[in-house]
Amino acid sequence: MKNKENLLEIEGLSKNFQMHLNKKEIQACQNISLNLKKGEFIGITGRSGSGKSTILKGIYRTNLPQKGTILYQSERFGEIDLCTASERQILWIRKHEIGYVSQFLHIMPRTTAREVIENAVMEMGEDRESAQKKAIQMLEHFDLDKALWDVYPNTFSGGEKLRLNIAAAMVKKPRLLLLDEPTASLDNASKEKVRDLIEQLKKEGTTMLGIFHDLEFMEGLCDREFNMQKGMLS
């Protein structure tokens, strides 16, 4: 790390996607460099297709960049380049250190809404009793109808799935939280619930990097803001 205050340092990150059907190459992001201090919240705005999500997916390693480094100060592994880390290391970091909130909930088969959150808590090493209490707190915070707590989320509306997704990520209080349009399909009341938790996590020291279309939601939350255009940050 160039600076010991940084939790994350991105240097020269580039990613293109190959379209095999028409043999075209789509430029997602080019030469992205960004430092994220411990406890800081950085927001990135930009039009759809500008490459914002590609940065987050590179950090979470769901997309592997072609060029660049993503240095992360892991509690378990020390300084580690997420681009070259082993699958075992990445799985550990995802489970225990880096959270990801996307617009879409990846449903676990035969897992109820309550169990989704309980499992997230127990992944952090807490016991079932603690997990049960925290699951109830989060479900109540997001005003998820009590009739839905023990239902499989594949029947939920888009907004209900997103609220559950956010609850499961935030209950773990990760060291680094990645937010990919976390308020995309939420009503204003639900947005305020998300904002309350983000503010709480920030006070507790969670470092966050988020991408947003909702500029009003971002106001007063972010320490720094960047705009993404045609794969470049400004």
TrEMBL record:
Phylogenetic lineage: Bacteria, Bacillati, Bacillota, Erysipelotrichia, Erysipelotrichales
Organism equals: Amedibacterium intestinale
Q: Does the keyword Nucleotide-binding apply?
A: yes
Protein name according to UniProt: ABC transporter
Mention one GO biological process in which this protein takes part, according to its record: organic phosphonate catabolic process
Instruction: Show where the ABC transporter domain sits.
Output: 8-234
Checking SUPFAM superfamilies in the record gives: P-loop containing nucleoside triphosphate hydrolases
Keyword field contains Zinc-finger: no
Name one molecular function that GO assigns to this entry. Answer: ATP hydrolysis activity
**NCBIfam families from the UniProt entry:** CP_lyasePhnL
What InterPro entries would the database entry show? AAA+_ATPase, ABC_transporter-like_ATP-bd, CP_lyase_PhnL, P-loop_NTPase
Give the PROSITE patterns listed for this entry: ABC_TRANSPORTER_2
Q: What UniProt keywords apply to this chain's record, in alphabetical order? A: ATP-binding, Nucleotide-binding
